[in-house]
Structures are given as structure tokens and as C-alpha cells.
Amino acid sequence: MRQHLTRLIRYRGLLWNLALGDLKARHRQTTLGMLWALAQPLSMLLVFAVVFSVFVKVPVGDIPYVLFAYTGLLSWLFFANSLSAGLPSVVSNMNLVTKASFPREVIPLSKLVTTGFDFLIGMAVLALLLIAYHRPATGALVVVPGIVLVQVMFTTGMVLWSSALYVLKRDLGSILPLILQVWMFLSPVVYPISLVPERYHTLYLLNPMAAIMEAYRSVLLFGTLPSFSGMAVAAAISVVVLWGGYAYFKALEIRFADVM
């Protein structure tokens, strides 16, 4: 494992070049350029804000629903978009995979860097919204990098698992959108975890994305530290998923050229 990681670090330049190439290709000849990174979260936020704060009236206490939903959407879209972009990445770069020698995980990881850039832009907008709504900044903000780290580990592991599996099982491309849709509504993106019956909380928080979203909201919206037990479970699951995803990817890597 250490040997693989050392080799991956040596190819970090390729990783960044692939990520920058994706960003340039996506925003080439567009009027708004990188501001398009905000189009998806803001359009979804508008729909959710109307449906769940006007029609359904989801109870979120004294927190403006715009802040509540946007915080959940940012973390969810980073995860979902990373999976959607990473899933076909190895297959889409078949020529590179079959003709060059480099750590193949560089390809799906470059997609993670691209979606991570969108996430950072979204976080900057969230910071402006927090200021506009006069949400207090507290010492709890120091744990935000830790929450981001847990999400990055979990997302990276899932991207590695899915991109390797997609080489063998192309049906996954049709199934993933359905999985993500169901997963989103099983996570507290547009509703608070308080709406989940108490007897299901333990099972519900086995979903790392649920604990991660709750942690972001605790710190950014309420100024309090997140649940230690919830984040500990999420971190443990994320480490297992990351290690397993990387091991699975490296185990299948040798077969990529033959299968494709």
C-alpha cells in the first residue's frame, strides 16, 4: 500500500493537469465561466426553498430555510457529483489507460479535485450567506476541516469503488442516478434529523452523509460542536470505505486494459 501511495504522489502533476483540463473544458467559451459551478446548487435551492418552506413548511427552528437547505445541498452535491463524474472516468479515458504507464487511480481522483473546486466556491457563497443572516462565528469552526476530511475520505473511497466496478459492470451507469436519488432522501438534505423517529436514529446515522450534514449544520448554523459519537462512526466507516475502495481499485487495475 505504501508503495502505491508513493507512486501516486509522484504523479500528482498528472492529477492536477487532468483536473485543470476538466475545468477549462467545462467553462471554455461560456459567459459566466466558473460561476456556473453555482448554477446547480442555487437552482435546486430555489426549488427546495419554495416546496419545503412555503408549501410543506419543514420545521427547522429559527434557522432560515435557505441556510438550512443550502448547507445540506453543498455537502450532498460534492458527494453525488463526485460519484457521477468519477464512475465513467476510467472507461472514458480508455486510450490513456491502455497506452501509458501511471497509477490509474489518478483519473477518478482528478474528478474529485474538480468537484472539490465547485464545493469550495459553494462554501464561499455559504460564508457570505451566514454573514448576511447574521449567524455568529464561534470557536466550533475549528472542526470544519475535520468534517471536510471525513467527507473527502468517504467520497474518495466510493469514487474508487464505483469507477473500478464500472469497468466490469456498465449497468452501474444506469443504476447510479436512482441510487443517488434514493440516498439523497435518506439523508437530511432538505429536512432535519429531528423528523426521523428516535428509534431509527442509530440506523439512520450509519449513513455517513447524514452524520456529516448534521455536523456541518451544528457548526455553521448553530455554532456548536457536532455529535462526537455520530462523527466517530462516520469517520470509522469512511476509513474502511477509503481503504477498501483503494484496495479494490488496485486489485482490478491490472485487468482494465484487457476488459476495455
Attribute tags:
260 residues
Task: Furnish the topology, listing elements before pairings.
Layout: H1 2-10, H2 12-27, H3 39-55, H4 65-86, H5 89-92, H6 94-99, H7 106-132, H8 144-168, H9 172-185, H10 201-204, H11 208-220, H12 228-253, H13 256-259
Helix pairs in contact: 2-7, 3-4, 4-7, 4-8, 4-9, 4-11, 8-11, 8-12, 11-12
Tell me about this structure.
The chain is mostly helical and 260 residues long. It has one domain (2-259). Helices cover 72% and strands 0% of the residues. It is built from 13 helices and no strands. Helix 4 runs antiparallel to helix 9 (172-185). The mean pLDDT is 89.
Summarize the structure.
The protein is mostly helical.
Q: How would you sum up the global shape?
A: globular
Number of domains: 1
How can the largest sheet be summarized?
Answer: none
Q: Uncertain regions: pLDDT < 50 for 5+ in a row?
A: none
The radius of gyration over CA amounts to 19 Å
User: Count the helices. How many?
Assistant: 13
Mean pLDDT: 89
Helix content: over 70%
- State the separation between the terminal residues, measured CA to CA: 25 Å
Topology pattern, helix = H, strand = E: HHHHHHHHHHHHH
The number of distinct β-strands equals 0
Structural class: mainly alpha
Strand residues, percent: under 5%
